[in-house]
Specification:
Elements: E1 18-30, E2 34-40, E3 53-58, E4 66-69, E5 72-74, E6 77-83, H1 87-92, E7 100-107, H2 111-114, E8 121-126, H3 130-139, E9 144-151, E10 165-167, H4 168-171, H5 175-182, E11 188-192, H6 195-204, E12 211-214, E13 230-233, E14 236-239, H7 240-243, E15 246-248
Parallel strand pairs: 8-9, 8-11, 9-10, 11-12
Antiparallel strand pairs: 1-2, 1-7, 2-6, 3-4, 3-7, 5-6, 12-15, 13-14
Helix pairs in contact: 5-6
This protein binds flavin-adenine dinucleotide (FAD) and FE2/S2 (inorganic) cluster.
Length: 256
């Protein structure tokens, strides 16, 4: 008798598992300038890995979808951490519950596949760049020596009451200044946030091994076909959406 066995997915890669036109907003927690937003109705959401992102737009919208990192993924839900700045993000921050969104993904290489997992890291997040790092911290606390999250103003602390933030307007420090205080030889760094922050970290840690930066760019397709997110690296041209978003800082001489 012939039997067929359906392969069981272990991890979600390159959009194989999440492609949904009926995801709907079920909860939202707003701070000043930032929000945590949860979308539900997503098949196998829990298979999204830290560092991966989704392409999202309002259902029926003619606008290009935008990229969002996963902050949490469980059951049929994905939580995002967004800066309330821009068309879609302000929409996510204001539309009524049950508004539906089209969502595809997850895309990008999971952080765990890009880094040396025998190493411990300081995670450095700037603004909404905290999202993938907090997801990594939740899934792989063993990899994390310290977490540094920096914000310009104190608008997001109520959204993460258990965490300490570096608030530039209050502490007169930026995230990379705090990193310089807590880093010690032997520790790696994984950073996600605005490019000036990534640049400062790449310069500070020039020549230090295991320093990684997660890049953001306005993505077109999100799946590696339009080449709109191509960047030069020491090993040739790579695409942020398909080959990243995480890159070893040593691969990006233009960042320093
Ligand atoms: C891999 C990846 C992960 C990401 N994860 C997140 C995340 O977790 N959370 C998050 O908040 N963002 C994230 N982003 C960034 C987000 O995808 C982009 O900022 C996206 O453009 C937001 O879409 P929007 O429609 O809300 O804003 P947009 O309307 O695209 O605006 C984005 C920014 O551009 C400015 N802008 C818009 N139009 C113009 C114009 N004509 N001239 C000048 N400036 C203009 C806006 O004021 C705003 O500051 C991620 C990006 C990538 C690549
Ligand atoms: S966004 Fe199209 S190739 Fe990256």
């Amino acid at each position: 008798m012939e039997t067929t066995t359906k392969p069981q997915p272990q991890t979600a890669r390159n959009g194989s598992f999440l492609s949904v036109s009926g995801a709907h907003l079920i909860s939202r927690n707003r701070g000043a300038g930032y929000a945590r937003v949860t979308l539900a109705g997503i098949t196998e959401a829990e298979l999204a890995q830290p560092g991966q992102f989704l392409m999202i737009r309002r259902l029926g919208s003619a606008a290009l979808p935008r990229a969002f990192s996963v902050l949490r993924a469980e059951d049929d839900r994905i939580e995002l951490f967004i800066k309330l700045d821009g068309l879609l993000r302000e929409l996510l921050g204001s539309v009524p519950y049950r508004t539906r969104f089209e969502l595809r993904g997850p895309y990008g290489v999971p952080y765990e596949e890009q880094i040396d997992t025998d190493q411990r890291y300081i995670l450095v997040g700037g603004g909404s760049g905290a999202a993938p790092l907090l997801f990594l911290r939740e899934r792989r606390p063993d990899l994390v020596a310290e977490t540094v999250l920096g914000f310009r103003h104190d608008g997001a602390s109520g959204l993460f009451p258990a965490l300490d933030f570096v608030v530039e307007a209050r502490d007169r420090l930026q995230a990379h200044d705090r990193l310089a205080e807590v880093w010690r030889p032997g520790l790696g760094v994984i950073a996600c946030g605005p490019e000036p922050m990534l640049r400062a970290i790449a310069r500070q840690h020039d020549g230090v091994p295991h320093v990684y930066v997660s890049l953001e760019a306005r993505l077109g397709c999100g799946i590696g076909s339009c080449l709109g997110c191509s960047i030069p690296t020491l090993t040739g041209t790579q695409r942020i959406c398909r080959d990243g978003p995480l890159f070893a800082s040593s691969e990006l001489p233009w960042l320093r």
